[in-house]
Each structure stands twice: as structure tokens, then as C-alpha cells.
Design brief:
12 strands; 6-stranded parallel β-sheet; Rossmann fold; about 290 residues; alpha/beta
Length: about 290
């Protein structure tokens, strides 16, 4: 019998790609938007859990506006940490596997080799700290969990670096992009597939997932613009300039290097990883402009 899966944040960037892929993989999916299920409200969580009594709950709801988290600290912790206690309580009642999406921002980026799941965490931002404490809330209180840390997410819906570059490359002749922060862009389609692969193998615990390869934000922007050219976008941009992080200060500090090791994921699934450039090509094959 197919497993019942409750999805929070169902109209968000990740869930919008995950839901159809779960349905294609023979899961019974119960999607809840933020209006239908407020994870920071324990009564709302209990009501949804009682309605569908899921085998799996995948939490795609989060407060992800990294810079706003620096000023909206209470809201960041309410959604990214405190709400996890309500989800744990609901999952415990029905012996539900809790799947939670976390972030590379739990690290400080001072390493020069890919971060493994057991490496020390040291967030530099309110967002990173709130996500780390959300992880800890789950780990400390509920064994039946699967936590995936992902990096540099982008998808068709929602806000992302890719969508920002698409917009400004059609508006401006010159772009200044940071060239001293490194990581792995990850298409939400590929993260969705990774979640399903782990569910199919009954995986539990903490995993890292991102698309393969490494680049800077500058490299990523250049590749986005090349894809836009190949798809016939009306480009205004004529030059892309590499700049240092210090030349583009933002409220939240980003990790300088946040490449995630996927060895544990590959060992569990036996699967090769799609390269981030292939993920970007796939995105542009789906994106309508």
C-alpha cells in the first residue's frame, strides 16, 4: 500500500516540484499551503495530522529570507525552530517519519574541504542559527526523522538567485557579482528526487544533498546568462564584473565556502549526482519567459 505523505508549505518553491514527483512515485500526497496549515500554530498542526494521519510528513515550510531574518529574528525562530516542536509532537502521535529541509548556512564557511554531516556547525547569521536550532529540536526529541541540508536552492516558483539574475540581466547593462563565495547550486527538481530516493530506501538521520560541482556566485551568474542567451532572452547586460563580498555588504553574513559532501547520500542510494550546470539547463527547459 502506498504511503501517505503530508506536505507543509505546499505552494512554495520546493514543494511545487516535489508534489508531482511524489505522486508519480505512487505516494498519496496531502498538500497543505501556509494558509491551510500554519506550522507555528500547534492546533493547526494537530488538525492536519488528525485529518490524514500520514506515514511521512515533509516540512517544506520555512522562513528563508536570509537578510530579513536579521531584523525579524522572532519570526525566524518561530518558524524555523519553535514550529518544529509542534511537528515533532504531531508526528509522535502517529509514528510519522518527519522529513525536514535544512541549509548549508549552519556552517561558517571557513573549511576548504566539503562539509560532512558530522562536521562542527557555526552559523554566521540569524537564518543559519534558527535553522540549526530547528535541526536540534528534532534530533533531541524524535528519532524517526530525516534531515536534509541543501545549498543554493532555486526553482521555477519563489525567489532565488537565478530568478534575480534573469530579471536584472534584462534590465541592466553591467552586473557586479560576488566571486569569493563558493558552493553548489541545487535545482529543486533534483532535491525533490533525492528526497524520494531516500524515502524509498527508508533512510533516517542527517544527510547532505546538493547538485554536483562547485562554483562562485559570479560563475553561476555567468552560466545563467549563457543559458538565457541560448534561449533567446532579451538581454540588456553587456558585462558581468567579479567583485569581493566586502564590496557588496548585506545584513546577513554568508559562509564563504559551503560545499556539502554527498558521500553519505551516494553510499545510501548508490546514485550518481546531476551536475549543477545540467540542473540549470533543466531549469531553463522548464522556465517560460
Amino acid at each position: 500500500m502506498s504511503r501517505k505523505v503530508l506536505i507543509t508549505g505546499a505552494n512554495g518553491m520546493l514543494a511545487s516540484d516535489l508534489i508531482p514527483l511524489l505522486q508519480d512515485s505512487d505516494f498519496q500526497v496531502y498538500p497543505y499551503t501556509r494558509k491551510e496549515l500554519d506550522i507555528s500554530n500547534p492546533d493547526s498542526v494537530d488538525e492536519a495530522m488528525d485529518q490524514c494521519q500520514p506515514d511521512v510528513l515533509i516540512n517544506c515550510a520555512a522562513y528563508t529570507q536570509v537578510d530579513k531574518c536579521e531584523t525579524e529574528t522572532e519570526k525566524a525562530f518561530q518558524v524555523n525552530r519553535d514550529a518544529l516542536a509542534h511537528l515533532v509532537k504531531g508526528c509522535r502521535r502517529y509514528d510519522t517519519l518527519l522529513v525536514h529541509i535544512s541549509t548549508d548556512y549552519v556552517f561558517d564557511g571557513r573549511q576548504k574541504t566539503p562539509y560532512h554531516e558530522g562536521d562542527p556547525t557555526h552559523p554566521l547569521s540569524v537564518y543559519g542559527q534558527s535553522k540549526l536550532e530547528g535541526e536540534q529540536t528534532i534530533v533531541d526529541s524524535y528519532d524517526s526523522h530525516l534531515i536534509l541540508r541543501a545549498s543554493w536552492l532555486y526553482g521555477i516558483l519563489g525567489h532565488s538567485f537565478v530568478k534575480t539574475i534573469i530579471r536584472i540581466a534584462t534590465e541592466r547593462e553591467a552586473l557586479n557579482i560576488v566571486n569569493d563565495q563558493f558552493g553548489s547550486p541545487t535545482h529543486t527538481i533534483n532535491l525533490s528526487k533525492a528526497i524520494i530516493h531516500l524515502l524509498e530506501r527508508n533512510a533516517k538521520g542527517l544527510y547532505h544533498y546538493s547538485d554536483d560541482g562547485i562554483c562562485s556566485w559570479y560563475d553561476f551568474a555567468c552560466e545563467i546568462i549563457e543559458e538565457m542567451k541560448s534561449k533567446g532572452f532579451p538581454l540588456a547586460v553587456k558585462e558581468v564584473n567579479a567583485i569581493a563580498t566586502s564590496e557588496y555588504p548585506l545584513p546577513a553574513v554568508r559562509p564563504q565556502y559551503s560545499l556539502l559532501s554527498k558521500e553519505k547520500y551516494k553510499g545510501t542510494t548508490g546514485l550518481a549526482l546531476p551536475h549543477w550546470k545540467d540542473g540549470l539547463k533543466d531549469f531553463f527547459n522548464r522556465y517560460k519567459h
